[in-house]
Amino acid sequence: MYSVGIDIGSVASKAVVFNGEDIISKVILPTGWSPRETGEKVLATLLQEGKIERQQIKVIVGTGYGRISLPFLDKKVTEITCHGVGAHYFDHEVRTVIDIGGQDSKVVKLDAKGNVLDFLMNDKCAAGTGRFLQVMAHVLEIDISELSTIAEGAEPQKINSMCTVFAESEVVSLMAEGASKESIAAGLLQSVSNKTYSLASRVGVENKVFFSGGVSKNPLLKIFLEKKLDVAIHSSPLSQYIGAIGAAVIGYGKNVLVP
Amino acid sequence: MYSVGIDIGSVASKAVVFNGEDIISKVILPTGWSPRETGEKVLATLLQEGKIERQQIKVIVGTGYGRISLPFLDKKVTEITCHGVGAHYFDHEVRTVIDIGGQDSKVVKLDAKGNVLDFLMNDKCAAGTGRFLQVMAHVLEIDISELSTIAEGAEPQKINSMCTVFAESEVVSLMAEGASKESIAAGLLQSVSNKTYSLASRVGVENKVFFSGGVSKNPLLKIFLEKKLDVAIHSSPLSQYIGAIGAAVIGYGKNVLVP
Ligand code: SF4
């Protein structure tokens, strides 16, 4: 028996197949204009790539902002709960999840069983999210995936404005003044780290800390955040799937959670 | 004897000459890259256009964020204080000043003598400022000065995101879905009105209310704000000069303030 978890985020849609022990298939696609079409495409691709028949899937659980648009779900669960369960699946010792997605960021505190004790979410302000970095990569005329690479080893340029709009003007001025793209890129990652730090401090951070979401793929951001929070931060190549994994684990049945 | 007030804002720099009773000359110029150069240019233009000799000026008072860069000032005063004094000069019955500038907004509460009792300022977030409208005018491919004109009489389109960055995407989507520029423009002015309302409610609004700053030149925004606050809002063709006027009045001597 398999369960499927689908996480329709504002920027990327993720889905995984869970066999009760392992994630045996995964798919990520841009969400685009229609969460419903994307959800169907994600499911079809998942089955096809995993060579899985529809009837082998016992249950499909949806999460993420676009879950309301999916007609084929057996269950809908909030992303906060799914992030908790997903992080617990990765490592039972995780007590804090820091997730930075394409358009939001959240900090979720967990108990020893992966239940949510507390959380804070920012989905109102583009600062400190993937969107901030996307806007800035555009100004720097680089791909967002290059930000961390070019920033490595550079002295971070101080970016005074937290606001995406004001920081964008600041970056334009800095470039006009001859500041290097490398130092600006480092400064921008530091800005996201600072904004995340203030969100995390308001909830309180407890060990172990797990870093997830698309933006967690920036190694330099992870380093800045570790320094700022003064804790080791754990992640996984699958961390972008954490919501989908949590949904699949919940679909499979809660018992898989308890060690 | 004359006094001069200079207000170097983030977007526009304003200066006025005061003769103890009336504003006899005024100038407004874009601030541009160098507040210092702009300040000097504003002063020179002011004297030239007003046909005033430098020695007729007894005192020059500076305000606005760029005042620190001006070497020729006799005195520097915060924009909050200057806005209070300036509004009091316009109308002794003003108790609340709502100022929306190019990159910030503030609400200042005054006593019967124009002294500041309380204030709140937003200069961290582009939402609810002229910058928000500037970004949106660009998306709508109209001049910022046309926003209020085209919006007049249109049913305001609801803009869900307060954040400039997210609202920008929303406007792009709305246009793709065929919403009219007129209704979007009205919706954007309503968004600024809502953001201003929440700032004003936190300080508390008392009659009379004076509306100033570059953004106050949008008649429709004034109407939205009056409806939302449920008070009459007063303004003046000179309202964009309120900070400079306050500075000039302070320079002239406090006695001119008391009726
Ligand atoms: S601070 Fe900037 S990025 Fe954040 S909500 Fe305001 S406009 Fe948006």
CATH homologous superfamily annotation of chain A? ATPase, nucleotide binding domain
What CATH calls the topology of chain A is Nucleotidyltransferase, domain 5
Bound molecules: iron/sulfur cluster
What is the succession of H and E elements of chain A?
Answer: EEEHEEHEEEHHHHEHEH
Given as residue ranges, the uncertain stretches of chain A (5+ residues, pLDDT < 50) are none
User: Percent helix among the residues of chain A?
Assistant: 25-40%
* Number of structural domains of chain A: 1
Overall pLDDT score of chain A: 93
What profile does the largest beta sheet of chain A have? 5 strands, mixed
DSSP strand content of chain A: 15-25%
Question: What multimeric state do the chains show?
Answer: homodimer
For the record, give the distance between the C-alpha atoms at the N and C termini of chain A, rounded to a whole number: 20 Å
Please identify the structural class of chain A as seen in this structure: alpha/beta
Largest interface (CB < 8 Å)? A-B, 13 and 13 residues
Q: What is the CATH C level class of chain A, in words?
A: Alpha Beta
Q: What's the β-strand tally of chain A?
A: 10
CATH 2nd-level architecture of chain A: 2-Layer Sandwich
Radius of gyration of chain A: 19 Å
Shape descriptor of chain A = globular
Please, how many helices of chain A?
8
GO molecular function, one term (chains A, B): iron-sulfur cluster binding
Cofactor (chains A, B): [4Fe-4S] cluster
Protein name (chains A, B): CoA-substrate-specific enzyme activase, putative
Domain ATPase BadF/BadG/BcrA/BcrD type (chains A, B): 4-251
